[in-house]
Input
Amino acid sequence: MDSSYQRGGSNGVGNLVDAVPKKSNWWKWALGVVGVVLVGGYSVSINSSGNVVIKADELKETGDDLVRAAIAGGGGETAKMELFDDIERYVLEDFDSKPVFASFLPGIAGLYGKPMWAFYVNRGQGVSTFGTESKEYPMLEFNAANKAYQLTPLIGFRTFIKGARNGKEFLTEPFSPSKSRASEMGKLEDLDTDGNIKPKRVMYVGANEVEIKELDYVNNIEVNVTYIILPMEDFGGLVRRTTFTNTDSKSSVSLQILDGLAKIEPSGGEIDWSLKNMGRTLEGWFGVYHADDTLTMPYFRMSTETGDTAMVTLEKHGHYVLSFIENDGAGAPPELLPIVYDSDVVFGQETSLIDPAAFAKKTVKEILEGNQYGDAKTSSAFSAVEEVTLAPGESVTIVTFYGKTDDISKVPKIAKHVTEPGYVKHKFEQARKMVDDLTSSVQTKTAAHLFNGAIKQMFLDNSLRGGLPVMLGNVDGRAAESNLDEDPRVKAFHVFSRIHGDLERDYNQFVILPTYFSQGPGAFRDVAQNRRNDVIFQPRMASFDVRMFLSFIQADAYEPLTVEAVSYKVPSLESAKSIADRTVLSDPESNQVLVNILSGGGFRPGQVLALIEQLDVTIDVSLAEFVDILLSECDEEPIAVFKDGYWGDHWDYYLDLINSYLSIYPDGEEALMYGHQLKYFFSPATVKPRSERYVVTFTYDGKSKHIIQLHSTDIDDEKVAEQKEYLDPETGLTSSKANWQRTSDGKPFTSTPIAKLFLLGLIKFTTRDAYGMGVEYEGGKPGWNDAMNGLVGMVGSGMPETFELKLLLEYVLSVLTKYGKPLVIPSELNKLIGNVTSALDTLDESGYADSKPLGKAVPADLFTYWDSVTTAREEYREETNYYFSGETEEISAETASQMLKRWITQVNLGIGRAMELGSQGFGDSGDTGIPPCYFAFNITDWVLNGKSDEDGLPLADAKAMSVQEFPLFLEGPVRYMKTISDQESQKAMYDKVFDSGLRDTQLKMYTVSASLKGQSFDMGRMMAFAPGWLENQSVWLHMSYKYYLELLRGKLYQEFFSEMTTGILPYMDPDVYGRSLMECSSFIASSAFSDPFTVGRGFSARLSGSTAEFISMWVLMFIGPNPFFLEDGELRMQLVPAIPEWMFGYPDNVGVVASEYDENVRIVSFKLFSAITVTHHNPEGMDLFGVNPKSYNITYADGQVFTIDGPSIPFEHADKIRRVIFVDKIDAYF
Output
C-alpha cells in the first residue's frame, strides 16, 4: 500500500500516527512537463505519460476559502489530493470517475428544528433524492442505489450555463457525465475527443454537509455546490448553495444560468408506490400554484390525495422552492429569482433530459417571458438568472431552499425570513456547529488524527441508529444534579433515531418525523445494541435503558420487532392545569387550550409542540423550559410494536446494557434488580407448538418426504380482541395499555428485573435443541445473521444464543448469591420449573453419558428429555398466552441458585458436544477447534398428527432426529470468547481463527463466514448471493468489529492494534474502500468475490452495529472496563486505559492548548461523560495497556484542584465525577 498517508512508523503500527493530514492550500494531480500550451489563465502542459499538468503561474486564487484550484508543483512523482481539507471534510478526487457509492446527510435539524432527509451518490450533482418523513413523501423521487447511480445526473440537480467571453459564446453543463474523466475501470482520461481538457471534479464529505466542485479549464469557470439540511427552524428545508467563479485572470465573462431540479415531485400524501407503478396516471393530480403573481414562489402540490375511497382528501400541503442571489450580509434583502417549472421550456422534446434542447435556442429572458405550464405533468424547478457578468476572480452565489409547508400562505413568510441579511451564512455555520456539538461527547485528541475524526463520525452514526439521549425535566438544581433513578422528574428521551433505510438498504422503511425532537422507530436489535453505551456518555440516564428493554420481555421470553420512542402522559387534570399555569400566563384562552392538549392522552415532545403551533397557543416561557416543566410532571411508557416474527437473538443484548450500567453504578445493582416492577410486553402473535409447525412436504428433488418447520408464529385473533378493548372510540386509536400483559382481572402483571431475567433464562434453557447444544430458532426468525432465514425451516439452532445463555444464567446466579434475596415468579413459571426438574431427574436416572465419538443421531435419552421440556414449555405458553393468573410463588435464593447451577452444567455439556461435533464445510473437516455457530436437525422419524397447515399440508410429531453441521461463521468464536476470561485461552482462540477460513488473507480482515461452497440453498438467502457479497463470505463489519472488541476485552492488546491497521476504519486503503474512511459500511466485498475491482469496497452506508462496537472499543481504550467499582463497599473510580504509545503526542501535535501542558510530555485527551476533559500524561512514552495512573489531579468547576495519589479516586470525588456537573477536568499521570 503506497498511499502517502500510510507511510512510516515502527512495530507495524506507527503508520497510524502519520495519518495526520498536513495543512495545505493547494493540491496537485499531475507532474512533469514536456510541452506547454496556454488555456485561458492557466499554464497547461502534457507530460510524457499523456497526463495533463496545470501550473499556477497566472492563476488567481478564487472561489470560497474551503478549497483551492488544482495546480501542479515541482517533483518527480504524481501527487494525490490530501484525504481531508482544513475543516476536516473527507476529500474524494475525481468523485464521479470512481466506483459508485451512496450515502446521506444525517437528516437532523436540532431539537427545535424540522428535518428533511437527503441521500446522495457520487454521480451527477450528488443529491439523488430528498423529502420529508419517509420515502413516501419525496420532493425528488426515491430510487434504489442501482437506479440512482443512473438517474441522478438526469432527473436530479442540473446546472446549465450560457456564457460569453471575449465575443465567444458557449453552452455548458457543469458535472455532466459526458465530461467525466471516467474511462475503463481504474483509469482516468484527461482529454476529450477534441483534445480539450476535461474538468476536474472533487467531492467533500462533511459530517453534516456535502460539497462538489468542478474546475472547467476550457471555459475558465469554477462551480461549487454545497448542500445542508436547514437547522433550527419551524419549517424544513434542503439548502443548496451554488457558486460560480470566473477563474480567468484576464477577461470577464457574462453568464445566463438555470440551476436546480430537472424533476420535482409535488406534495400529495404517500406517493412512492404510485410514482413507480402508475406514474403517468398520477401526473393527472399534479399542479403548480403560486404564492403571488410572479414566478418566484411556486408551490408544487396535488389537487387531492389519490385514495380511491368515498372520502376525498384535499391537499393543502405543498413543496416550495425559493431562490436568490446571496449577498454579503449587508444592505437590503435580495430579490427572489424566478423559477422555471415547465421542463418543456428547458428540454423541449428531449425527453431523455440529456441536453437542454429548448434552452439552447432561447435566452433565459425569453424563457421567462414565455408561457409555462405545470398541470398534469412532472415539473422542474430551475432558478433562473437572466444575466450576470463576472470580472476576473469574481463569484456569484445562488442559494435555493427546497421544502414543504402546510399552506401556501406561509411561503411568503418563509421567503422573507430566509432572505434576511446574513441568514444563509449563519445557517451553514449553524449546521456545522450543531453536529460538532453533538459529536463533542467523544472529542478525542491524539497523535492519530484520523482516529480522532473517525470516533466523532461513529458517534454520530450510532446516534442516528440508536437515538441520542437527551435529559429533560431539569426544573431546578436538584433535578440537574440527579440521575433518572434518583429523581422521577428527570426524563430521558432519544432523538434523531431511525431504522437504517437508504438507497442500498432499499427494503427498509425509514421514518424521520418532521417535528421538533424528531425521531423515528428502529429495529429492536439495532436500538438495543446502539444504546449499549448510553449510560457511559450520559450517566444521568442510570438504569433507564435496562428497565425499558427488560420490560419488552414477554411471557413467552420473546420480544417485539420495532422499538419506538417513549410516550409521556400527564397523570391528571390537576397536573395539566399546573403545567399550563406555570407556562401560559398572559392568555387565558391559550391556557385552556393547553390543558385540553395535555389531557388528551399519550404524546411525545414533538407532537405536543406541533399541536401548540397548529392551535396558536401562546407560551410565555422558552420552548426548552416548557418541555422541562411538562416532562417533569409526566409519567412515561415504553412503546414497541410486534411487526413480524420473533428473532432468536433479541435477548442477547440485555447483559451488555446491564454491564454498561454496572460499570457506572456498581452500587446500584441491588436496587436495579430488586427495586423495580416491570410489566410484560403483550404481542398479538403466538409461537405455535411443534404439532402445528412441523410440516411434511417433498424434498426439493421430489423423490422423498421430509419435515420442514414453517408458520412458526400466528396472529392470534383473541389477542387482537384483547387489545381492541383499549380502543378509543373518539380517536380510533388503541391505548398503550393494550401493549402489556394483564391478569384475568385486568391488572398489568409485573415482576422484578431479576425475576424477568430468571424467567428468560429458564425458557431459553428449555429451548435448547435435542442435542442440548444450540438454542432453537422456533419463533420463525434466526438470530443476528438474518440471512440464515432458511435455518428456521431446517429445525435449526444457534450456538451464539447458547453462549449468551451461559452468561445470562451465570449473571442471575451471581446476583442471587450476592444478595441472597428470594425470587418472586409467576405461578405458571413455577410449574414449568417443576416439569424441567422432573425431566432432568429422568435424564440423570437414565445413566446417559455421551458416546465417544458423538454420533449424528440424537441419542434416545436426550431426545426424550428434549421432547419433555419442549412439551412443558408449550404448556406454559398455552397457560400464559392471554393472561397471567396473578398468583406468584417465592423461591429462596439458595433453591434458585441450585437450579441455576444445574442448568449451567447442562449448558456446558451442550457446548462440549458442539465443540466435538464442530463445523463442516469446504476445506473444513471439523477439527479447527473453533466453536461452530449453527446446527440443523433432520427429523428422521415422525408420525402424522391429523392436522394440516394453512396450505393443506400434513403436520407431524417428531420421534427421532439427527444433527447436521455447517461451515464456520465468525459469530461462533465471537460469542464464545465472551465466555472465557483467561488470556491464554483467548490467545489460543485468536490463533485458531487467524489460521482458519474466516480470515481473508488478501484483505487481512475477517469474513462473516468461511466458504459456503457446496452448501444447500435451504440455509437461507446468503446462498443466493455470490461468494464475497452480502452475507455470503463477505467482511461484515459489525461482526468483525465484535471480534476485534473481544480481542480488546480479552487484553490481547498487541493482536488488537495489529488488526486495527488493516481491518478497522479509518485505517483502510481509501482507494480500495471507495468511500469516506470516516464512515462504516455494512459489508466489504471480500477476496472471494469474482470481480477484483469490487474486492475491498464498502457497501450499505453507515447505520451499522459496527458503530456501537467501535464506541465500545473507544471506551475500553480511553476509560477502561470498569471506571467505577466497589472496594469494601465504598464507591471508587479508576481510569485503566489501553492506548498504544503511537497515539500519544506532544501538546502541539495533539490539538490542545499547548501552553497548558508540559511540552516534553506526550499526552492524549478526551471527553468523559460528554463533558469532563480527561488528559492521560505519559512521560515515559510507553504503551499504556491496562495500567492504572500513579496519581490524579481533579479540577472542579469552581476552580478547586485536588491531587489524589494512587491508582483510584475515593468516594467523595468519585461521586462528584459521576454527577458530572461538579467537575471540569481530570489529569491522570502514569
Observations:
- The radius of gyration is 32 Å.
